[in-house]
Amino acid sequence: MLTKRIVPCLDVKGGRVVKGIKFRDHRDAGDPVELAAFYNKEGADELVFYDITASSDERAIMLDVVERTASRVFIPLTVGGGLRSVEDMHRLLQVGADKVSINTAAVLNPRLITEGARRFGSQCIVLGMDAKRVPGSNPVRWEVFTHTGADGGRGTGLDAIEWARRAVELGAGEIVVNSIDADGTRAGYDLELLRSISESVPVPVVASGGAGTPEDLFQAVITGKADAVLAASIFHYGNYSIGEVKEYLAGKGVPVRREAAK
Question: Which burial class, exposed, middle or buried, applies to 254 when counting CB atoms under 10 A from its CB (0-12, 13-18, 19+)?
């Protein structure tokens, strides 16, 4: 089994890290630059920075905040929010991002995935997917949502599994799968969604939405077959540290990187 990555997520709104439940009722969690530096020191494997209202506000991402955040970390940094063009991607990579995450823009213009992959390489292009179970569906289906930073999002009619496959065919090198139903609830990831996508695509899948305990992260990589686990609330509010989660996973036989970044 390859080493599994632990990835804190910084959802940024108005220049501050926030966390809500199912994309609503956000509360403050701190300064993104300081939190990034803290997680870098604590041994996070990667870091994700989402400007969560850039798309819904129809504005560009806050490059200055991204640049200050990138200057404090020495681990891979994925940044998303408000990206609409290859030039937007280029600007983010110039100020310190290692990978760019696209969600709304990819749905509106799937060619953007291909254009980005051709210019920067598939390893730089992350598909961010916000998915929600379709009520009453049998077998269960999940719908892709966009513009999720403001009002809970807009349904697209896209099937999450089909969209994941298509995005990889277009050039996406990684997929962050976020369950809207589980987001911020700390009740565990949507393991059925995770496993369905993990078994459908040949690229790394990152679990997002619902982490409450180290056991939830363990289940994401074992039952959900995720390659990495993204979490926010449990780290931001001090429920668990990066080290505690890694110790737990290692004790259950999951390979993790143990040394902290310098």
Answer: middle
Ramachandran area for residue 136 (φ above 0: left; ψ -120 to 50: alpha; else beta)? left
Is residue 261, in this structure, part of any structural domain at all? Answer: no
The CATH code of the domain that includes 23 is 3.20.20.70
Across the range 17-34, mean pLDDT stands at 65
Q: Apex CA 181: angle with CA 231 and CA 42, to 5°? A: 5
Instruction: Give 214-261 pLDDT, tens digit per residue.
Output: 999 999 999 999 999 999 889 988 889 999 999 999 999 999 998 654
Q: pTM score, two decimals?
A: 0.90
Report d(CA 84, CA 92) in Å as an integer. 12
The residues that are catalytic are 11, 130
Q: Is residue 78 in some structural domain?
A: yes
Buried b / exposed e across 218-253, counting CB within 10 Å, b at 16+? bbbbbebbbbbbbbbbbbbeebbebeebbebbeeee
Q: What is the pLDDT of residues 161-172, one digit of tens each?
A: 999 999 999 999
